[in-house]
Design a protein that fits this description.
With 397 residues, the chain is α+β, with helices and mostly antiparallel strands. It has 15 helices and five strands. A five-stranded mixed β-sheet has the order 1-2-5-4-3, with helices on both faces.
Amino acid sequence: MNIMKQFVLGRRLVGSWALDRGVTLDDAAAISLAEHLAEQDWQVPREADDLELSLLSFLVLETAHRYYVQADKALKTCQSDEGRTLFTTEMLPERLADLAATLHFYDQAPSMAEALPVNGLASLQSLTNTLFAVIAAHFPAHMAEVHAQSMRDEVAEVIRARFPRRREHVPVYSPTHLEFMGAVDRTRCIFAPSGKYWGARDYEESIGFEANVCRFAEDLFHFMLVAHKEKFKGLALRLPAAMSDSVERLAETTARLLDGLSRIDPAGSDCLRRVDGREGWKFEWAGESMFLTAFGTCYPEDHPRNPYGFEYTYFFFQPDFVLRNHPGLIDGKEEISRQRILASFRKDGMDYDNTGKEAEHARYIRPMDADGPAVEWWRYLPARRQAAEQARQPVAG
């Protein structure tokens, strides 16, 4: 039995089943379930369909799904004599308590601060793999049918009655994330399918642009907090289609969005004051620099920034602390990787050209034509537009 495959497949199956059955967890619900399971007596053996064991597997796999946990190599040996000694059932209460502690940190993270808070808590990557290893090592009968046991009606009934989700927005189950993943599946970017992504809350027309930016700022800070420990790659924001119905409108929306974020930057970088067409500038927020990719409804289907048929404007934020640690961008590989990505798009007639767009921020938005000039979105910043309008006013007298 390949436990690594069981983990990865189970993560996807349980996440999809939980969404379909309306029993998805949020961090608070997962914490309560973990604390409940930590109090159980995990004596061996147990029946394959033991309900507490099924709830444990559900918790591990659903949490792994919400946080895009990958299988660790340790799962290869957990069913050996050495593995059974290493991953004992006595570990379960402590590791479940650790799981609750990390989830609590993510769920009750402090308000936006000038720098991301750090701690010595274990990652969910490590904890869910360890818990799954214990299950595999000591409950082989359950492991043989772990997916079916985790998705039983009895499990759904318990979750619904005793551990219901409270938060409306859970990033991995959000409409933005689910739709964005459809675009990821279709993109020609060779690195995209292996990434770990979240979606922000949906845009609410009734509260206005500025209020939506404030909500997104909260989601962005939460994402960055998690991404730092769990190695996420990016956060998607979905805005109305009309906000990108032309390249000019997309540039204006980009400027408004970044201006709104900069005004409430907890680190107060005021980075937009310095932006121009020269290389070296970075958008900074909460003490971290990042890259931004804009997708617009103005682009035809064969354009690399078309939102893949979805009638929304998309922005994709990637903090440098994860982007610059990608295996394809370190050790002098960045230019080679960029050429490979370009070749992948070009093969399907979706060319783009970086000539004249050497500055990273000149690539936030793409011109309509591959070899067109950089879209200077910074010219649409409210302060600059106001200054330009004032300069055009006739001098009195």
